[in-house]
Amino acid sequence: MKEILVRPERCVGCRSCEIACAVEHSQSRDLFKALSEMPQKRLYVEHVPEHSLAVPMLCRHCEDAPCVGVCPTGALTQDSLTGVVRHNRDLCIGCWTCASVCTYGVIGRDRRARAAIKCDRCPDREIPACVAACPTRALIYGEVEEVSGARRAASALKLAQGVAASSR
Amino acid sequence: MERKPATESIDPAATRMLREARRAGLETAWDRFKKQQPQCGFGQLGICCRNCNMGPCRIDPFGEGPDKGVCGATADIIVARNLLRMIAAGAAAHADHARDAIIVFKEAAEGKASSYKIKDEAKLRALAAEYNISSWEERGDAADLANAMLSDFGRQEGYVTLTRRAPEKRRKIWEGLGIIPRGIDREIVECMHRTHMGVDNEPLHILLQGLRTGIADGWGASMIATEVQDILFGTPSPRKSEANLGVLKEDEVNIIVHGHEPILSEMIVEAASDPEMIQLAKSLGAKGINVAGICCTGNEVLMRHGIPVAGNFLQQELAVITGAVDAMVVDVQCIMPSLGGLAACYHTKFISTSPKAEFPGALRMEFSEERAAEIAREIVRTAVENYRNRDMSRVIIPREKSECMVGFSVEAILNALGGTPQPLIDAIVNGSIKGIAAVVGCNNPKVPHDHGHVNLVRELIRNNVLVVTTGCNAIACAKAGLLRPAAAKEAGDGLRGVCESLGIPPVLHMGSCVDISRILVVAAAIANRLGVDMSDLPVAGAAPEWMSEKAVSIGAYVVASGVFTVLGTVPPVLGSPVVTRILTKDLGDAVGATFAVEPDPFKAARLITDHIESKRKALGLKV
Ligand code: SF4
Ligand code: SF4
Ligand code: SF4
Ligand code: SF4
């Protein structure tokens, strides 16, 4: 299962991901036309002032998703195959129970539909819009195993270099 | 009708070279464009501001995030200011070009730039009269004219001189809005001042300065450049030539002149025909020296000498990839900095000549007006000697080239019409020609290369709209065969009849981008004849593939002159509903013309023919 993984150290805070997300969730899927639709974004580039960093925050599609468990109407469900947490606007009553339990605070409010709004991982796209839009590749779309494996290998290399240097 | 989607170019020569580029692992503008995708939404909408160091600031176009910059600037203010800066940059490019032309003219008149001669005495005389230089005949008075023109740049009192060429009614409108330009440089400087943090913050007020600066470009800088270049190098007259990469020759030294100024390229054309140089080329195994142009430097020598044109803006890299270019000689504007790296993959010498413009990987042979002929010879010699280094096994020249008829300056058009614009006006009045469209401007990889240009122009002539063209649109039309008298066959019956009786193409090549000023002069002449304003005429403008800031300035003066203009690529203004409304609607009340944006050339043609029809109705002409 592929996940959107975040590398905050690469984020430059340009918010291209936010714009791309909003456009992807418009009817027209065209930046210029979407202006008249005012679509909403589903991920948030958060500024962390203590460290002068920008951190993109989006739904993790938690494997044991608390939002799904608490939703009283069944508006939130989790695909057993992909793990994607989906939201059914028709069932949503806007009680915000899901928002209260989401660890990441990434459940938003759709002003017009008076319902929760969240990352759906762009079901019509091969690569989610935010990932495709990020110019610095701060967002990656891949298997956790693969990404962790690559990171493990890179760390191992660093470690090995250190060992080799100190034993010289 | 079958509309086959071409994703990169509709020109088979360009497509062929792109394939070669990919095979050879070379990167072109199309590849870099792809790597830029998706492009920044804030930038595309014009809602980012870097005008001070409290920023950068950006506005959330969807209304959730920040709605103001640190200073309080809204999307409307930011978009208007950004647009004004684009106009200023574009007008500055034309102004600088014009000033350099005047300086060469002045030095020629003073005998300092002996390589240059006065070629059009009549035009000199007429211009001197317009500038009130009465004693032009005596020696040194051409220098007086030069000084008078130079004073238009830094003018402190009165208005830019050639704005007097605009029809009375038009000038009244400008006067009413307070937008007759004062000094050319002054308007550009004022744009920069007004967009400085905390100065001008009212979108309409800002955009009116944009129109004034545009007028300073169109009826000032660009017009001066055209006139002075005609005086120095001759006013273009109809002649035949060829266009597209197929004009490069396998067995001759190929020199490409690229950029925008004819000042050096004129000399290169001359030096390349010097028997001594040709002899040198022959001694090195070449059959001769072939000069070809790209972009507007190309248009300048095409219009005046029939020097073939190798392609338009997006073909500059492709020309190098033919492996047959011995020297790519550039001056200013629209020259891709990628050329240096690309030329290094071949034997091509990439030679930069302007004191203003340096490029990575370029061989510098700086131009000076005093030593113009000498420098041109050095450049030609460098190219000729470089022929020996050409790797013939890597030479791939596409076969495609089209015949074209070029050189329709205002004077040439009048000539073709028998001395007065009356026959043209008659044709418009009786409806055989429905109207005139000026189709101009760049290429842009956002649109398949030449797709917007060629399809729009074809569609227009089919509907009996006479097309006048300059810049890269003109080159696209030349390549598509639309500049041949035979292309009248593609026109509607009315236009076809007129063209066939006069022996002219249905698309008239009026020159380089600064020569859009010629189009203004034609439109003003027709308006004056009919006793109406330019905005009453059944005319329209279009820039189907525009990309440069110069195009924004041009758009500003064309609309300010009362001509409805359709843009094919979206300008960075949509982030502001107010600016968008001003440009597409309110300007109509103010100056009698608006902008429209329509990327589809077939729909754009419809917008233009509808507009022309409505103007015909208003004039009481049959539609
Ligand atoms: S909305 Fe929050 S809790 Fe629910 S799956 Fe996404 S991150 Fe987890
Ligand atoms: S706001 Fe909607 S989705 Fe969230 S818990 Fe309530 S009903 Fe479920
Ligand atoms: S697009 Fe990438 S770099 Fe820009 S804000 Fe989003 S995550 Fe950060
Ligand atoms: S001028 Fe205003 S909007 Fe622009 S960067 Fe400065 S504070 Fe931000």
Give structural attributes.
heterodimer; A: 168 residues; alpha+beta; two-stranded antiparallel ribbon; 8 strands; globular; B: 623 residues; alpha/beta; six-stranded parallel β-sheet; binds iron/sulfur cluster
Description:
The complex is a heterodimer of chains A (168) and B (623). Chain A has 168 residues and is α+β, with helices and mostly antiparallel strands. Chain A contains six helices and eight strands; from the N terminus they run E-H-H-E-E-H-E-E-H-E-E-H-E-H. In chain A, the strands form four sheets. Chain A has a two-stranded antiparallel sheet. In chain A, strands 2-3 form a two-stranded antiparallel ribbon. Chain A has a two-stranded antiparallel sheet with strand order 4-5. By secondary structure, chain B is α/β, with parallel strands linked by helices. Chain B contains 24 helices and 16 strands. In chain B, the strands form four sheets. In chain B, strands 6-5-4-7-8-9 form a six-stranded parallel beta sheet. Chain B has a six-stranded parallel beta sheet with strand order 13-12-11-14-15-16, with helices on both faces. A two-stranded antiparallel sheet of chain B has the order 1-2. In chain B, helix 4 (75-109) crosses helix 22 (549-560), helix 5 runs antiparallel to helix 9 and helix 9 packs across helix 22. Chain B starts with 11 loop residues before the first helix and ends with a helix. The model of chain B has no long low-confidence stretch (mean pLDDT 95). At the A-B interface, helix 1 and helix 2 of A face helix 3 of B. The structure holds iron/sulfur cluster (SF4) (4 copies). One iron/sulfur cluster (SF4) is lined by residues 59-62, 65-67, 85, 102-104, 106-107, 118 of chain A.
Short description:
The complex is a heterodimer of chains A (168) and B (623). By secondary structure, chain A is α+β, with helices and mostly antiparallel strands.
